[in-house]
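**Backbone geometry record:**
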Amino acid sequence: MEQPNGLEAMGCVVCRDFGQDGFFVGTVVGFEFDGQGNSLYCIEYTDGDKEDLDQEEFNYAYALHMKREGWDLLDGASHSEGGDSNSDDTISYRDTYRPPKVWPI
């Protein structure tokens, strides 16, 4: 499974853990390079707040969202519809399912 990066990440959903404030879901609404060539992803959260994430922060937020949606990122990027990851209910990401880049919030 390849994670979208750069302009391909526009519309992707991410999740951030803000500790006691809980988890917040947001969407990538902008992408640019800073003055030093580093990637910056503009995230707009469901509560209207915005923040810029660097590449490492974006990678973590994208992976956290996928994990919370049921993706097993350590086991060949499979998505379980219930049961354990070794059951026949596991759907192979590459064969049958591709999450949409824009999800309604």
Q: What stands out?
A: Helices lie at 55-68, 93-96. Residues 31 and 41 are 5 Å apart (CA to CA). The two ends are 23 Å apart (CA to CA). The beta strands are 13-17, 23-33, 39-45, 50-54, 71-72, 78-80, 90-92.
